[in-house]
Every structure is written in structure tokens, then in C-alpha cells.
Amino acid sequence: MSTKNFSGFQKEEIICSYHFCEKMARKSRSSFYAAFSFLPPQQKQSMEAIYAFMRFSDDLADMPVSDFTKKFFIERWESDFLRYFEARNTSEAREDLSVKDLGIIGGEAVYSEDFEDNQKFYDYYKQNILPALMDTIFHYEIPLKYFQDVMSGIKMDVAYPVFKNSGELETYCYHVASAVGLICLYVWGVEKSQLDPGAENSLRRAALACGKALQWTNILRDVVEDAKNGRVYLPEEDLKENGFTPDTFRAEVLLLQEKISQKHIRYFMKRQNFVELKNVNQLQNICLAGIYRVLEKNLEHAKYFYEEAEPLLEYLPRESQKICAMILGVYYRYYLKIKKNPWRIFMEKVHLNVWEKLQLYVKISWRY
């Protein structure tokens, strides 16, 4: 926490807010949280505040409520964020904001269909996240634009987007991932002039590619889950090349996932590699060759961005290389697992087990 009150909040409010964000990040059990341990205390708690902001923004987009209600709370969240950012040095913006305990367990968002209940949950998280977030933003002088870019990406999600081509999906990946990465680099000690909007340099290009690689991997991991939620993020042009519309692709994904859940199909598919499954007859017409080609095309997109992101670590301050290597390492291993056998995304959420994470942690601790 900064020694100076950059955000306009009282010291006690900021301390409580950082504590809340730490609990929220820890309870998420995210791979990102494990990587935070590589940072010194002040940077770690700033990352927890940023994580809490991103996590709550995602939670608002995923609320089990009507689209109208989602849009209301997301617009409210953006409006409140901007209000406290722009009027941080006056009492006007803060008159309704103090860290409160409403008897709710921190870090566990619960929503209902009752608007007033959701309003209470919204106020609770707003009041507990914003003090730490604002303190972080003003301490590290992070540009407002990057947070606005993230909010634009969250609003895209609520609109159930269809991306016509890889360029449009790349733009989406910038908003929900690359902009987040740039925010993190301010905390990790990268020279601000290299990160500011409009800057052109190798570090910033590698950082942008890193975010896109991670998000493209996430999209591939979540093909089935997204289909269940009525979403298809893969480029429409890739679908059309293989005879699909977004709706027919989603239907085929759900049908395939249902059939793969059968025990004998799962047993067979776990033992096949990426190349051996090109012949759709091997799966007795259950696995569609078109789905395979769509996945293959998007694995190539992800590969391209991983290659573009490769120089990033060498540009970072030494003390920040570990956290970046951990995050990038986890997601690159997700990518490799999907590449080896893309059909596994229909059987499970691709992840690293405890032993794999420990191996990676030890490797990075020794190397950097």
C-alpha cells in the first residue's frame, strides 16, 4: 500500500479494501493468484486489487439474470469507477463510499433474480474493491484508457458477440486480455513511456501478443462451456469454411460433447493424438471433421501470438520475470495439451494438476 493517500480514501479504508481483495483473489484458486507470490508485498497486493476488479467485472457479465439487468450493473460499475477516478480529490465522489461489512462472505458473489438483492451485492463489492483499486491506479500512474478498454470488452460479452473474422476476435482479445496485461506491467515496474497508449516498441508489441495468446487459449478451453451458454467466440469465417453457422456449430459442439461423455468413447479418445484423429471414420462419424479443422485453425492463431510474445520476458525487470513466466507458462501448457489432443476439451476443462504446477513453479524459481 502506498504511504501517500493517492486515491482520496482514508488509510483505514484502503487497508480494509486491500485485505478484501486479497481474500477475493485467494478464494478464486486462480492460476494467476499462485503467480502473485513471486512479487514483493506492495506489488502483490496491487495485483490482488486489479484481479478483484477484473473478477467482479466478469462476474457482472455472467450474472444469472436478464441481459437488461446485466447491462444496468455493468454500466453502473463503469460509471461509478469513472466517478471515483475523476473526483478522487473531492468529497463529492466519495460521499456514499466506505468499506462496509454487510454480513456477506467476501469474495463469494451470489446473485438472485431480485433486483434489490443484487443491488446490495453490487454495493458491497463496489465499496470493498474501489479503495484499493484507486490507490493502486494512482500509485503506479496507470492510464484510465486501459480500464476503459477492459470495460468495453466486458460490454462486448453481454452483447453475445459474433466475430466475423480473426481480426475482430483479435480486437476483442485486446480488450479483455491485452489491456489487462498492460495494466499489470505498470505494477511490475516497466518504464511507463514504453507502455503508454500510442507507444510503439518491441516490449509493448510482445505484451499485446501475450494477452491475445492467453485469451485465444481460454476461448479454445471454453468451447463447450460457451456453447452451453449460447456463445461461440471462434471466428465466423472459420466456421463458414467448414460448413457451419454459429448456431449449427454450437449445436454440433453440444451433440459431440454429449456423445463423448459415453464411457467407451472417452476411453478411445483419451488415447488418440492430434494427427491420428484426422480421419473422422475412426470415431464412427461421432467426431466431425469440420470441428477438428476449426479447432486446428484457431490453434494456429494461438501459436502465432505465443511466438510473437516470446521476447517479452527479456524486456521485463528481473524481479518481474517470474510472475510473467508463471502466467505464460501455465497457459502455454494449456495450449500444448489442446494441441496434442483437441478432443479433450469435450471431456474436461483443460487444466494443470498439482504436480504439473509444482514442476513449473520450481523450474521458474530456479531459472529466474
Structure, described:
With 368 residues, the protein is mostly helical. 67% of the residues lie in helices and 0% in strands. It has 17 helices and no strands. α3 (41-61) runs antiparallel to α5 (115-140), α4 runs antiparallel to α6 and α9 runs parallel beside α16 (318-340). It is globular, with a radius of gyration of 21 Å. The two termini are 26 Å apart. Residues 97-111, 273-281 and 283-287 have low confidence and may be disordered.
Give a short synopsis of this structure.
With 368 residues, the protein is an all-alpha fold.
What best-fitting shape do the alpha-carbon axes yield?
A: globular
List how many beta strands DSSP finds: 0
Mean model confidence by pLDDT: 86
Strand content bin: under 5%
What letter string, H or E per element, gives the SSE order? Answer: HHHHHHHHHHHHHHHHH
| Helix proportion range | 55-70%
Topology of this structure?
Layout: H1 11-28, H2 31-36, H3 41-61, H4 67-86, H5 115-140, H6 144-158, H7 166-187, H8 192-195, H9 202-221, H10 223-228, H11 236-241, H12 246-260, H13 263-269, H14 289-309, H15 312-315, H16 318-340, H17 354-367
Helix pairs in contact: 1-3, 1-5, 3-5, 3-6, 3-7, 4-5, 4-6, 6-7, 7-9, 9-14, 9-16, 14-16, 16-17
Which features does this protein show?
single chain; 368 residues; mainly alpha; 17 helices; 67% helix; 0% strand; globular
